[in-house]
Write a structure and sequence with these properties.
Immunoglobulin-like; 8 helices; 368 residues; ten-stranded mixed sheet; TIM Barrel
Length: 368
């Protein structure tokens, strides 16, 4: 109770720091964090604090993923229910309109590593698969995740580089087995402040769902305009059911520090619907290109083919940034602008990746 009394007034005074995203026709673009911890495993905050943090950041959905095998503060609580943090946070989440998903984390040594289980029905059932003499023993991980499958859960592999002796991601024999048995459906491409291009490639090559989460343990402290790592979900409806359907069908984008990682079919509509482009002719050789970025994500553009149109940029390079939530004006010149004609230029959006090291190729169209 003391924690709540000290935290609630602080959150009440904070201005919301929500990442603004465009509307996508046919979908709800939801901001989600499916990996976080509270005092009920190895986190440092009470479950309702996670809800308040999510509300302050404008998140749509969160999952409290307490470790099954690692509960260092368990002696301080009478409840041994692995979904106790969910039960405590549920009321606050409902009041604030945040979708709270029942979840847990299976925590084994690498390999196989750690796995989050979303939409779980009975987290306590996983206790059966824990080796009491060596709780991090991963020999029976297939049987453990098969229990998740029986519960209709969605399983993804967390931070594949964690606890690897060389601090890198490696697709090992056990992961191939889990993939072949359809016991894992996604992987964290981003965890906290780390992105792994190799893992992104795995997701694309193996058609696994792209995940990005904070894995926050301490209190979440962000400056205005700074946002946690999150999974953007293109759901057909704003509900738990809608989120689960989207995850199963791989409609996600990893979002981290102003960067997007995802399939072109999902990231391109985000860029398309972020930008409002107009052109104002000055004379037959000069025009002003007006580009409004309505989203909270800046777009770093690199000209690749201007088709005879010259952009007057401050940089000697062929690149420019459309800052978040900004109006941008660029003087453009050509040998002859014809009023009423549509023009187009080809660009790379450098901070929107559709493959490992591959930026989104984008065509910017405007009419004089």
């Amino acid at each position: 109770m003391l924690v709540l009394l000290t935290v609630l007034p602080v959150f009440a005074q904070l201005k919301k720091n929500s990442l603004k995203l465009p509307s996508i026709q046919g979908y709800e673009l939801l901001k989600c964090d499916f990996h976080m911890h509270t005092v009920f495993s190895d986190g440092m905050v009470w479950p309702t604090t996670r809800v308040l943090e999510a509300n302050q950041e404008g998140l749509d959905a969160i999952a409290l993923t307490e470790h099954i095998e690692y509960t260092p503060k368990s002696e301080d609580f009478t409840s041994k229910d692995h979904l106790r943090s969910y039960a405590i946070a549920e009321k606050s989440a409902k009041e604030l309109g945040i979708i709270l998903i029942k979840a847990t984390e299976i925590t084994r040594r690498m390999a196989p590593g750690h796995f989050n289980v979303l939409f779980v029905k009975d987290a306590n059932a996983f206790e059966t698969f824990v080796n009491k003499d060596d709780t991090r023993d991963g020999k029976n991980i297939a049987e453990t995740l098969d229990e998740a499958k029986k519960q209709g859960a969605f399983v993804f592999w967390n931070h594949p580089w964690f606890q690897h002796p060389e601090n890198r991601s490696e697709w090992q024999k056990i992961h191939e087995e889990l993939d072949q048995k359809k016991l894992i459906s996604g992987i964290e491409v981003v965890n906290g402040d780390r992105y792994d291009s190799l893992v992104f490639k795995w997701c694309l090559d193996k058609n696994l769902t792209i995940m990005s989460n904070s894995d926050i343990h301490a209190p979440m402290v962000l400056f205005p305009g700074q946002y946690r790592a999150m999974t953007l979900v293109l759901a057909k409806e704003r509900s738990e059911k809608g989120i689960q359907e989207a995850l199963v069908n791989h409609r996600t984008i990893a979002c981290m520090e102003g960067q997007l990682f995802g399939k072109e079919e999902w990231v391109k509509p985000v860029v398309d619907n972020s930008l409002i482009v107009k052109a104002r002719q000055i004379n037959d050789k000069t025009a002003i290109l007006e580009i409004e970025n309505t989203s909270g994500i800046p777009y770093k553009m690199e000209l690749t083919d201007a088709s005879g149109i010259r952009f007057r940029l401050n940089s000697p390079l062929n690149d420019f940034t459309l800052d978040a939530l900004s109006q941008n004006t660029i003087t453009i010149t050509s040998s002859n602008f014809v009023k009423g004609t549509e023009y187009s230029v080809k660009l790379n959006v450098l901070n929107v990746q559709v493959g490992a090291g591959k930026p989104l190729e984008y065509i910017l169209k405007f009419r004089i």
